UniProtKB/TrEMBL annotation, chain A:
Assembly and interaction partners: Heterotetramer of alpha and beta chains.
UniProt organism field: Liquidambar formosana
Entry-linked InterPro entries: THDP-binding (IPR029061), Transketo_C/PFOR_II (IPR009014), Transketolase-like_Pyr-bd (IPR005475), Transketolase_C (IPR033248)
Protein name: 3-methyl-2-oxobutanoate dehydrogenase (2-methylpropanoyl-transferring)
Enzyme class (EC, first level): oxidoreductase
Automatic annotation (TrEMBL), chain B:
Keywords: Metal-binding, Mitochondrion, Oxidoreductase, Potassium, Transit peptide
Domain Dehydrogenase E1 component: 135-432
GO biological process: branched-chain amino acid catabolic process
Protein known as: 3-methyl-2-oxobutanoate dehydrogenase (2-methylpropanoyl-transferring)
MF-aspect GO terms: branched-chain 2-oxo acid dehydrogenase activity; metal ion binding
Keyword Mitochondrion in annotation: yes
Subunit structure: Heterotetramer of alpha and beta chains.
Reactions catalysed: N(6)-[(R)-lipoyl]-L-lysyl-[protein] + 3-methyl-2-oxobutanoate + H(+) = N(6)-[(R)-S(8)-2-methylpropanoyldihydrolipoyl]-L-lysyl-[protein] + CO2
Keyword Transcription set for record: no
Location in or out of the cell: Mitochondrion matrix
Cofactor(s) required for function per UniProt: thiamine diphosphate
Amino acid sequence: MASSLRRYGRRAVSMCRTRKPAFSTSCDDTSLLPQSGTSINLFSAINQALHIALETDSRAYVFGEDVSFGGVFRCTTGLADRFGKHRVFNTPLCEQGIVGFGVGLAAMGNRAIAEIQFADYIYPAFDQIVNEAAKFRYRSGNQFNCGGLTIRAPYGAVGHGGHYHSQSPEAFFCHVPGIKVVIPRSPQQAKGLLLSCIRDSNPIVFFEPKWLYRLAVEEVPEHDYMLPLSEAEVIREGSDITLVGWGAQLSIMEEACLDAEKDGISCELIDLKTLIPWDKETVEASVRKTGRLLISHEAPVTGGFGAEISASIVERCFLRLEAPVARICGLDTPFPLVFETFYLPTKNKILDAIKSTVNY
Amino acid sequence: MAFSLRKSKYVIYNNLKTRMGLFGITKNRSCWTSSPTHHHSTPIAAPFVQTFRNTCASFRNTGTLFSARRFESIKAGKQVLDFPGGMVAFTSEMSFISESPKERAHCYRVLDDNGQPIIHQNIVNEEVSITMYAHMVTLQIMDTIFYEAQRQGRISFYLTTNGEEAINIASAAALTIDDLIFPQYREPGVLLWRGFTLQEFANQCFGNKADYGKGRQMPIHYGSNKHNYFTISSTIATQLPHAVGAAYSLKMEKKDACVVTYFGDGGSSEGDFHAALNFAAVMEVPVIFICRNNGWAISTPTSDQFRSDGVVVKGKAYGVRSIRVDGNDALAIYNAVHAAREMAISEHRPILIEALAYRVGHHSTSDDSTKYRPANEIEFWRTSRDPVTRFRKWIESNGWWSGEAESELRSSVRKELLHAIQFAEKVEKPSISNIFTDVYDIPPLNLCEQEISLRETIKRYPEDYPPNVPV
Ligand SMILES: Cc1ncc(C[n+]2csc(CCOP(=O)(O)OP(=O)(O)O)c2C)c(N)n1
Ligand SMILES: [Mg+2]
């Protein structure tokens, strides 16, 4: 089932950074869509996943700052009413407390679904994630684990977030053996991946692209389904260059692919989905076919996860590469409010890099 | 009236400082000693500290830390443990310290709900009072107009201080400009009091090239070096340990100044709050922690935040002298902060002030608080408990204020603000070189390269970029 669903995510989101209303959806072949699916946005898809998680596991809990009334992004709407205040609750304003509490709750065999209000505010919990959650299993010789812990956090640009409501901190967590990092690109993906994360036996940081909470709309099956972790997906096939990305950045990359196509360049676009442990095989197979690689993410280029992908692919495909690996990413600066468009890896920056890589 | 204030704010301000000293100090001394909370906390804390010091000294001399002297009998029949940290008396009665006090910590106030003094004493004089009132009104008008500007899409975000005007202005009035401020985000009134102009506020909110933060941060993240007001960060409670470090510096430099840091009820849950209080006590630094307990942290009520008697009682656990104050009573705030400042500087000690108020506005322009709290609760605090109205009643009953003065003040502040906004909106944004500066003292190679590459992209695709940002 999961594999057929994976197709539904194709070109799931099409929106651009000028805050036009997002256009919903689109599957190349609409007949593939399940009858039961309705068009919903990304926060509603997350909400559905949380409903299902709480419904299907009486030992699942949802908590975090302002979670009771539905959360500042409305992802937890209706949960407290439906499942009661002992399973869905506000916590004090303390991220280290939220994650530490989640580690303990998960260590008792529960599904601890913690919300960090913004990815920018995950840092007070860094120690609990890096030294505790990530090493809980290893340090005990697998006597204990906190695999039931899932940490959700909205990440990324949103048009007016400035330093502390825009960050993409995924690379910090990709450097930590013992946790997984997952980022969905669309409502359908969000629901299926979040359910997989919640039910996975490892602590996971799940970053949600907050720009897409309302903007991305697509048909999402109403039933319980899971999408596989550590499986990348080719969301657009091509032969001249491979593009790898995740989350909200994919829609920008897709626009660049469409423009490049007008110039006769055929781009293959891969959604990595799980950043760690990542699906090298899918990326490698694609680069072996195209001979070129471009990676794009919003986080600063230096030390970003693009660097890791680049190094790995150079190791594996050195002789096949026809051009240096390109990285189109955020600038090496804090996220600056009025300069947001200048900071971001825009479509045209990607398009230029596609062309120069192909013409290298 | 605020206009003459604005023109020569510093002159008047300094004038006021001298005068306030005369009135403030004598009266204010009595205000903390007469406070019931202090009578409880002081005698317990002080001997404890003393014992600790004596004990240490004797240990060092004799080297008998774990010798027989450890169990020492002071009075016949009363056994005492000579424990590192001080003498601890033994008891055969097994009694747990209660999780809650028999009575909640009292709340210090000077004015009653009708703005009438409960105790008659010389508080602040006419000039200071009127200045305070004018600033509270200015803050209110600023909030109304900026909020509206956000609603019209002219600025991207805003957040009001409604209900907390007295905490903002009266605390600022009790300080001197040399005292350093480490703010959260709901204290622009402190900056206003210090002379930050309406134009400067507008420049920050519009992120134009006159904004000291160079357009990099969201609206309301003010900062002004010349006003000793450190730049706001959105991250909750992170400023609190900074305040302690800065206060240590003031102490080492023997400055006649203290550090004042503000935070919310929500902020008191962060680890940084606890670290800061503990550090402040141990380092013995002149810092005043002002907690604005406004009942809410976005949608989270204080009952979901802590089960202690608010924030004031946490001071005692860390060995920090503390007081709870009516945050809607400007005179009470003024007195408490004034007294706290005296103690902080002369005794090198931290002070915790918990001001009880209510967040009358939504959390911010991103919030609709009717989703999680009853409208009549908001309405009650907005009308019956408004700190500005209460203070106005007091100055009016002293014959210091009139309806005429009121309307003149309001219309001229409004005019000046509208002008400031119109002007700020027209000023161009900072140029793009400001993206790359200040990341470090000197931009390293990677940033220089990125700037060159960005400029090339802009040349190729000028239509991708906002026209009001100069290249
Ligand atoms: C570390 C961190 N976590 C979460 C947030 C999101 N947030 C912004 S304001 C706020 C509530 C703060 O409440 P309080 O400290 O009571 O201040 P108030 O807004 O009431 O003045 C929260 C949770 C943040 N800014 N920083
Ligand atoms: Mg609050």
